[in-house]
Amino acid sequence: MDNLSCSANLGSLTENRTVRPLCHCLHVFADEVQQAIDLDGCQTVRQVTANCGAGGGCTACHRHIKRMLAEAAAARAEEAAAPAFGFA
Length: 88
Ligand code: FES
Description:
The protein is an all-alpha fold and 88 residues long. 61% of the residues lie in helices and 0% in strands.
């Protein structure tokens, strides 16, 4: 396999990954889970499942949902720790 065909294969792999659902059982995509976390305030897998359905089947996607929840919590903690430069 030369470099060109290798790149082409990686490209198609990446494309497939962006259109595959995060939760295959309930056919829920990552952006829907992110919306449940960011806009609707879900902080647990159970809340995400109740919100958009992701995680309500075999539970294989729970580790992905937990990672997204952890990243959101870390971002919130970082934002809370940042000094506020308000002009009062
Ligand atoms: S893949 Fe999400 S519950 Fe099965």
